[in-house]
What we know:
Layout: E1 5-9, H1 13-24, E2 28-32, H2 36-55, H3 63-68, E3 71-74, E4 85-88, H4 94-107, E5 113-116, H5 123-127, E6 136-141, E7 150-155, H6 161-173, E8 177-182, H7 189-205, H8 211-222, H9 228-235, H10 237-251, H11 260-268
Parallel strand pairs: 1-2, 1-4, 2-3, 4-5, 5-6, 7-8
Antiparallel strand pairs: 6-7
Helix pairs in contact: 1-2, 7-9, 7-10, 10-11
Amino acid sequence: MMPKVIGVVGAGQMGAGIAQVFAQSGFDVLLLDTNEVGLQKAVQSIRTSLEKFAAKGKIPIDAVADIMAHLRTTAQMSDFAAADVVIEAVTEDLKVKSQLFKSLDQILKADAILASNTSSISIAKLAEATQRPGKVIGMHFMNPVPLMPCVEVIVADATNDTTFETIKGLVTKLGKTMVVSKDRAGFIVNRILMPMINEAAYAVQENLASVQDIDTAMKLSCNFPMGPLTLADFIGLDTVVNILDVMQDGLVDPKFKPCPLLLDYVQKGWLGRKSGKGFYQY
């Protein structure tokens, strides 16, 4: 049976985007965050995104209000008792996510699925915090969620077939394309992407070329929509470092060690777009 109520934990950019695409597809969505200001900001960003879609003719103008009616916000985790699937989109930290999964496991109904939007952390380790390992799965959306067509689904050894088929059905319902990865640090996308970003940072550190020329070379030579350094700023340099650290620990390979320049920028608070400065100034 197709789930009807989707819970999303975390009202940041990813959480808001995930909530939007589910609401657009007709699901009832409950968006949770303990930060009331963050919740209201997320609701406004969703509304603005939908209005832009309407202005471009991608959705009817009168659909905006209907879609927003599918979205509800809360600061109370207990409200997730009615959820069929809950997707967490909180900070990329194993301890934070594990504690969240432990708390959710005690609230959700027995057949509810717990999914993580993690981009690198082991799904099996997250499942250890619950009493429902068969119903834990990775559901990694790409940023910006409403525009990016791919969802990376990560299947742990304990994830059961029913859980996988349910998530497969959800991805199809969202109109997105599913790729499936085994539960290895970094999965598919970041296993390949993060070393490229890291190497681009080394190129800057070694004065191989300017930031602009490195990005231009990769855009025009590899047909990328944006260069790796622009993308790193968009992701957040602190997030890039966190993912590289997880991959280095999980895969035990020094090639994933973060470039010293990245570490220096993060220490200085130069995190990219969200801080106003990274490889570029904003």
